[in-house]
Sequence to fold (722 residues):
Amino acid sequence: MDIFLQQIINGLVLGSIYALVALGYTMVYGILGLINFAHGDIVMVGALVALTVVSALGGSGLPPAVVLLAAMGAAMIVCIALGVTIERVAYRPLRRAPRLAPLITAIGVSILVQYSAALVWGKQYISLPTLITPSEVAVAGAVFTDIQGYIFLLACGIMAALLLFIKKSRIGRAMRATEQNPDIAGLMGVDTNRIIAFTFLVGSAIGAIAGVMVVLYYGLGHYFMGFMLGLKAFTAAVLGGIGNVAGAMLGGLLLGIIESLASGYIGDLTGGVLGSNYRDIFAFLVLIGVLVLRPAGLMGQQVSERA
Amino acid sequence: MKRRNVLTVAVAFALAAFIGACGKKEEAPAPKAAEAPRPIEAATVKIGTASPLTGPQAHIGIDIKNGVQLGVDDANAMGVEIGGRKVKFELLAEDDEANPTKAQTVAQKLVDAKVVAVVGHFNSGASIPASKVYSDAGIPQISPGSTNPKYTQQGFKTTFRVVANDDQQGPTLAKYAAEHLKAKTVAIIDDSTAYGQGLADAFERTIKESGAKVVAHEHTTDKDTDFKAILTKIKGVKPDLVMFGGIDPQAGPMVKQMAELGIKAKFIGGDGMQTPNFIKLAGAPAEGVMASVPGLPKEKMPGGEAFLKKFKAKYNADVELFAPMGYDAVMVFVDAMKRANSTDPAKFLPELAKTNYQGVIGPIAFDDKGDLKNGPITIYVVKGGKWEPLETITPGGATATAASAPAPAADSAKK
Fold:
């Protein structure tokens, strides 16, 4: 039983990282109908910036919390700049183009960001000097560390704040209006370009935090890490209902738990034929399953098909 | 409908990108370098080397390349004369990205460039496919770090290595675990590569013979960094010992996450994780982790001290792992060429098989398959944030395999 509980804890922490990344996909999709494939790579850049800052400041004797805040701040600034630039340069000129064009651009931008990062940071794994030694808390036979706790709580806090912001604030209302219909929102006095840029800003900032969490949790990063993370988060967004912010959170957490349970138990269930080295396929099985059975996702609204 | 269409296309693209990424390391063979006209007085002899110069294992690959370069420089400084002509050695270094397909491409490129000998590759998964290419061209190959037994068991006359193989390393590690660590229940994890799985399987066979129980054998990949799920499962079966077949980018986070889950079992692995990088990645929980490495400790190698100094002076870096093996591989080639009085692979290959050379790493002689005879294996432990040699074990004869009867304990001589 404690093993099961432990897998759930592992899954929740992994899932809260997926959820944060999924927010970036879902918000952009909601407002532009565009899958921003470069989002995973923005997260990667955030992670590597954080690694660089921590490595630079790690030996300076500053308290770990200060180092971490500096790393997070630097990652957010770089990611926001990157996200907003990508929107301005790669997506805005194509906003009226057929839908396939921005999709292809997105994949191009993703590859561009990846290999630029490979140029800047090199292609090897970059490791993080241990910043905080995690202390453990035992709960009913399962163990979780304070780092896991921080990651989970911070993710929940960000998600709640974002939901509240979209629901209650003026900009949030403008975002929802733009999502409904950009043209009419524009006629109503919403500066849709600014709102779209703002969406990229928020998504990138949250992505940067997710990147810092990955670094803090696993202690290493490299230029290709955004790819799989991005695909998984994208799957989470689809699972929850792409375009739906609450759905992305649910999808992320669910996907994390599914992956943890599956890689923990698949060996026993298949009599050792499949091992946990097959764990990446679960995300894609989920993706295919959702698209076949419930294309709108768990919390998405069925978009009525026009005759 | 509109949105669904976009989504379907998006998913198709995502999958296409995923599949593309899996195979993306293939590259068209680079155009052949134009052959420079050979000067009549000093013959230029090209020696090739291939190892991962980029990617997660780049630090190991570059270490090998630097060792080989040092060997070539020293051979040139010695002023070798073969067949009455002064010989100038030239190194062609290639990046195989630790990728089997790329390794074959690179091997062909070296063959096309008319190298007479190759030091490489590092990964067994790269050495094995590449060895076919070298064998077809009749070019001898000495691997400085590939330990999978299959490499020398394909029936090729051109395959040699200057490290003990997994059939020697795995059982030695297992015997150590059974005799010294008194492990009764063991969990095994491997990274699904030729190296990791080979080592883990060889370990498993011997540890079972010793009477210990293998309570789990899990697989991961050489790209994963999240092992919480596997480790949670392992926590459930409560092993005395966890053995990992794989390399440091996985071993580091694995040990760290093991500590976070409160698993108190000892952790051992092979040479792929015995690097400073591992300690950096694992942090404090690295303390007490053990790993076996083919060969003597660098400092205890007969030519170790001088080599380390020379290496440091030239590259301003410490030897990572296999640089001395790369250096010796060059010297073994040069030695065979001198004895054959020829730089023609067909002529010096028979001499290579008869090698009896005193290298930096110790005496080098090959058995009939090309494996290093009596290759010593050293067990290291992390102590005070550093790898410290614990014990050196010389297997009783290089032909000893896991299938042979359990060797007497006298095999392990304390150093």
User: Anything to note?
Assistant: The radius of gyration of chain B is 22 Å. Residues 22-33, 397-415 of chain B have pLDDT under 50 and may be disordered. The CA atoms of residues 52 and 297 of chain B lie 23 Å apart.
